[in-house]
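Long-time lurker, finally posting.

We've been working with O-methyltransferase (Streptomyces albipurpureus) and I want a structural starting point before designing mutants. I don't trust myself to interpret raw outputs, so I'm hoping someone here can both generate the structure tokens and explain anything notable. Sequence follows.
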Amino acid sequence: MTANRQTSWAFADAFVAEDDALHWARERARESGVPSVSPGTGAALRLLAATADAKSVAEIGTGTGVSGIYLLQGMRPDGVLTTVDPEPERQQFAREAFREAGFAGNRARFIPGRALDVLPRLADGGYDLVFCDGDRIESLEYLAESLRLLRPGGLVCFEGVFARGRTVDSAAQPAEVLRLRDLLRAVRESQELLPSLLPVGDGLLCAVRRG
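Top reply, 14 upvotes:
Generated this for you. Predicted structure of O-methyltransferase:
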């Protein structure tokens, strides 16, 4: 990648300014050693949620609330974010971050637990957008659950599919990177999905479920 392209990419990823609530959530993420989406990725998620006029969004991987704030900002004022994470302490940080961002308590439903244990309990076709930022090894299972959860015309998004450049590196790679390659192939070849791979953050794979 040329220096100009790297500079342009960095500029695009930092194009949207973040408020105090997002800075607070990012600081909690740094202290906890929890990765969080980049500003560019967050802005893309907000845009997609707004474009979908999303009322119901499911999030795999609450973290400390960075991505959740962006999703809520894009959703309808009466929209509800259902967010799943195996670590209740992280979800408590997210609750505080959402409150700091000005969202009422009923705008988010926090479910602690492993995603593949929780997702089967969510309603078929009940969601406008599913955002996946969980265990990369489980990516294909998240995709299958997302197809069940989404309404026709709904969106599924996967964070971190570039794996810091390892996804396209020909050297030997760990299992999670191989699973990301399987995910990319499955989304690209699916007859049920209309895909796009956005070069923001560490790669945001998005797809619309066809009607």
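Before you design anything, note these points.
The radius of gyration is 16 Å.
The helical segments are 3-13, 20-32, 39-51, 66-74, 88-100, 115-118, 139-149, 175-189.
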